[in-house]
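BUG: 3D viewer hangs when loading the predicted structure for this chain

Environment: internal workstation, default settings.
Expected: structure renders.
Actual: progress bar stalls at 90%.

Input used:
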Amino acid sequence: MGIGKYRYLGSSKRNKVCETVKSIGVTESEIGERWDAAMDGIAQVRKQQYHSYLQSPDWNIKRSTVLERDKYKCRICGFGDKLQVHHLTYDRVYDESLYDLVTVCEDCHTLIHTLD
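Structure tokens produced before the viewer hung:
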């Protein structure tokens, strides 16, 4: 925790961050807490944007197209109840192709995210 979260920085940049932080009297624990809070804030904004996207006309068109393509059946278990459209990758969210999406039932969708 703490400074370890800055590991992605190059060593000279990381050292500079550490020196600066120490010079202003912030502990590694405080850095960790501030980092976590910042990441939680970013995650919350992204989550809100994603949920807004799932209510958009663009998403509804893609969702309907995928459900129709998959013949309104879960591609995992074959059932047709409580269907959802799952992203196979989140690399192109908001601009995904139909091949990035698959129809799954609620139970299989939950299982997929449990295994992630």
